[in-house]
Amino acid sequence: MKLIEAIEILRAAQPAEVQAFRVNMVCGFNPLHLQTFLTARLRQLFPDMRPEIAGGLYGDFWGNLERAEAATADVCVILVEWSDLDPRLGIRGLGSWAPEALEDILTNAKGRKAQFGQIIKRVSNNVSVVVCLPTLPLPPVSFAPGWQAGAFDLELRSVVSSMALEAARCRNVRAINPARLDRDSPLEARLDVKAELLSGFPYKLPHASTIAELMCQAIRPAVPKRGLITDLDDTLWNGILGEVGAEGVSWDLEHNSHMHGVYQRMLHSLSAAGILIGAASKNAADAVEEALRREDLVVPRSALFPVEANWGPKSESVSRILKAWNIGADSIVFIDDSAMELAEVKARHPEVECILFPKDDPQAIHELLHDLRDLFGKSSLSEEDSIRRESIRQSHTLEVQLGNGPEAADNFLKQSEAEITLNFCKSPLDPRAIELVDKTNQFNLNGRRFTETSWRTYVSQPDSVFVLAAYRDKYGPLGKIAVLAGRKVEKTITLSVWVMSCRAFSRRIEDRCLGELFQRFDIDQIEFEFVSTPRNGPIHDFLAGMLGVPPSPNCRITRDQFMARSAKTFQKVVEAEHG
Amino acid sequence: MDETQASLVRCFSAVFPSLAASDMAQASTASVKEWDSVASVTLFAMIEEQFGIEMDIQDLAEMVSFERILAYLRKADAAKH
Question: Is ipTM beyond 0.85?
């Protein structure tokens, strides 16, 4: 983004009553154009909000950081530069670079590291934090020539790496990846000496724009894709199965097809991180199964579910996989070496991200792996990630059972030994709750999203009601799958948030959750802040069933209505130990 | 209005949104009350980016009006060709 574009974005009119998105920016330099870029990008990121960036005092990084603990903000962004570790590492100060000063500079930097670690822990208890550690070239302080990695430079960089590590280990902190910054902003095009001398702003404009962009990605990471459907021939492996047979396809150095093996390794890694991996191939099913039984397959056969091998259009295979996964088309990526197949799938499922597998270009395949990490990457893994694939398989089995009529469904659910664990604990709040609220689309009362801070504030109100539900049955755990949050006033609970993972459908968990609200909170009615969204058909249908009419905003269900219309439930309900 | 002038007008409009188009050519640090040091830094950074030039640090003190900046840019453009 250019500076003029950023300013023009900021000049565009916005309704006066929009909610503020408050950012506390901690740095020691004059944030000038970086603040402009960041505000403009935030404006694009949150079109319904008004970004407000509060800066601190010029030249007082550590004071600004100390004050961040008490500041009220939705997010705190922290930019450390070398001169914040010791003023002699900047160009505005004229402190000594003599060899005898180096040890003292290192001692100061180490002291700052310890101070940084302590403060960042405290700040991140209250607010989400984004950290960017020194991005500018280290000035030629050391006596060693520039081509040599001297002990001073290495030790200083090690101090900074330790700071980054300590910050990244805090739950509520995201650190900007210096490797990504290196890719997007060349080192030699970062420092603007003239601007630093004139105004105390040290960055060239493209560098400031890149930092703002990366910070925005950290402030609001893109929702990760949830499933990947891969083609097989000339994609998962090299060769056409129908022509060369199961033993003829390859993914190794010997056959000059090694990058297919590297691609398989990536799919295995994604699968192990909870990403759903399916396959869609125009092939005979038995031939595919034979190939997938090969022991040298890098991605285990069990990681692929479902595998659609048939001679029909790929778009139909994709439809069946989406149904089995029960997720939206916009949550998946389809990879195929044929541009025609990609176009056919795209025409039927425009929301699917379709990517060409560049089978003849090893370098491009390597780049594709980086792109896949960006599309599917998560800041941390949860228990739910490790059980997702298995629970999808179970749901598929369940759907088949439920298709045999209500009596068969009752019998199946009765024998499944289901148990729901309810967690009412508001402090500390389980981070899985906001993850569910943020990611769930189908069974979602109104599509409302929260920042970490606004979520914490909402739930911590004295009259708030908060429930996080986990589910397991004899087939295995589904993990934490539903969140309900609202306010209780006298004999009414008003639900503002109700989401449930699509993996948990058809188990009557929704009926049980409402029943527990009536029972535990001794209420007469539940009011729903329902808003229809393009995706929340499942909750619309559930509420319509309860109400007898389509739901409207602020619709209510009384205890009597609930008792008369709720489905029979069989789950045992327990309260979480620390709840 | 030539391309150089049009680009400079866009820069001035971005930095001084309340400045009327009719007053642009006469704009100066004396006539535009929003033209403070921060506005100068922003305006010069924007001009450098828009025109792909590096303004000499010694020249900046002279850049006190639309007219002078336009003349500077025309001179720089002529020197390039």
Answer: yes
- What is the full per-residue pLDDT of chain A (579 aa) written as tens digits? 999 999 999 998 888 788 899 999 999 999 999 999 999 999 999 988 999 999 999 999 999 999 999 888 999 999 999 999 999 999 988 999 999 999 999 999 999 999 999 999 999 988 999 999 999 999 999 999 999 999 999 999 999 999 999 999 998 999 999 999 999 999 999 999 999 999 999 999 999 999 999 999 999 988 899 999 999 999 999 999 999 999 999 999 999 999 999 999 999 999 999 999 999 999 999 999 999 999 999 999 999 999 999 999 999 999 999 999 988 899 999 999 999 999 999 999 999 999 999 999 999 999 999 999 999 998 888 877 877 777 777 777 777 666 667 777 788 888 889 999 999 998 888 888 998 998 888 899 999 988 888 888 899 899 999 999 999 988 888 889 999 999 999 999 999 999 998 888 888 999 999 999 999 999 999 999 999 998 899 999 999 999 999 999 999 999 999 999 999 999 999 998 764
Q: Using H for helix, E for strand and C for coil, what is the string for A464-527?
A: EEEEEEEEEECCEEEEEEEEEEEEEECCEEEEEEEEECHHHCCCCHHHHHHHHHHHHHCCCEEE
Chain B: residue whose CA lies nearest to A199: B41
B81–chain A nearest CA distance, Å: 25
Contact list in A for residue B50 (CB cut-off 8 A) is 2, 4
Residue ranges with strand state E in A283-352: 304-310, 332-336
What is the rounded CA–CA span in Å between residue A493 and residue A445? 14
Please indicate whether, in this complex, the C-beta atoms of A205 and B15 are within 8 angstroms of each other: no
The answer, for B71 touching chain A at a CB cutoff of 8 Å, is no
Residue A517: name the closest of A554, A479, A483 by CA: A483
Report CB contact under 8 Å: B49, A4: yes
Chain A contact present for B34, CB below 8 A: no
Of A413, A520, A519, nearest to A471 by C-alpha is A413
- Distance of residue A4 Cα from the nearest chain B Cα, in angstroms: 6
Tokens of A174: 């995201």
B15 touches chain A (CB under 8 A): yes
Model confidence, pTM:
0.80
